[in-house]
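In the current project phase, work has continued on tokenised descriptions of protein folds. One protein thus recorded appears below exactly as we store it.

——
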Amino acid sequence: MSKAIEINNLSKRYSRKKRNLRSLFIKKSSEDQFYALQNINLSIEKGDAVGVIGPNGSGKSTLLKIISRITEPTDGNILVNGKVVSILEVGLGFQQELSGYENIFLSGYLYGLSKREIESKIDQIIDFFGFKDFIHQAVKTYSSGMYARLAFSIVNYIDADIYIYDEVLTVGDSNFSRKAIEQIKKKIDKQKTIIFVTHEINILPIFCNKTIVLDKSKMIFYGDSIEAISQYNSRFNSIESDPIYKEKNEIISNFKSTIDIIDLQNLFKISDIKINCTDKIIKMNDDFEISMLVQKYDNETKLDISILFFDNNEGTPILASSTGFRANGKEIVEKGTYNISCKIPGNILNAGSYSVSIASTKNLKKTVSHPNVFQIIIYKDTDSPFTLAKTKALANIVPEFDWEINKSSYE
């Protein structure tokens, strides 16, 4: 696979002091400068979907501006193969006095489109924008949500090799966010290179096969998105990625598509673990099912399989179910192949971001957890999968019990 972006020893320095004519003739000391990025080495393959996370001031936006060729690095070099389009700060590149319609043409010209190409796409852009009645008004009258919608709508219909999204999707409403998610997924499916910045770190495994973690201008991790979340939480939130049972004699592999859980005592193997929902984003009132294939290699060990749900915000287990509790009267004892499934009814888990672990128990004694098999998002129809984590609900478990209300006849 060829490289989309190659970065070597890249640094970006800025001056702390205001620049004026006199400052051009005065040599700057190191104390007058600070690093926004320092000694970044990075290689992104074509077709990768890469998340970028880190606290405020860590260098995320600076990195995106350098990749987008808005600013140049102070030191090092960067090679970008292909056309780049980006949504950075809300409204960046829009002319305030021009209408939304005129800004579509202006943005199209800046991205190298001809007038004819823009005219062929403009009806689709306006339709996706969703505010046709406002398209001829000056963009200075737009809300931040309308800014974000217009920016995304323009970029969405520009054919490029690399797409960069910087947090702007959290500004739009829930319906638009879901539409945007679908469009990003389509670009990933077409093997476009995606760079995605968000503070909602738990959605990263849904989109990104890799994630960059930045802190104080330096890259502290680049790799698997689940591991990146663990690194981020341990560094900034002090939350362990798996707060229950861990054991080194279990192997986890192939996270992106499937995980094979192999017992090194050669007693069983769990494979083909699936969840029957679209992109691990689930409506709160929808049922969903987790299934797996278990191959049992002996006739003596009783094996129980459990599913555990963890609240990603707190890192705590909030729901568990096991084949030992209720599995149509059947057990996993005899040698053979078993198809196992667990149906989770709707309106049990509240809106939020959760990680799912699989636990295996031998002879009701030895339990081992296999963490982060899935990351899922539960959302209400009124929520956006990008913004639901910002509103903490009363509880994680919210079953719909039968309530009865009768007004008393006594006053």
Observations:
- The chain is about 20% helix and 35% strand.
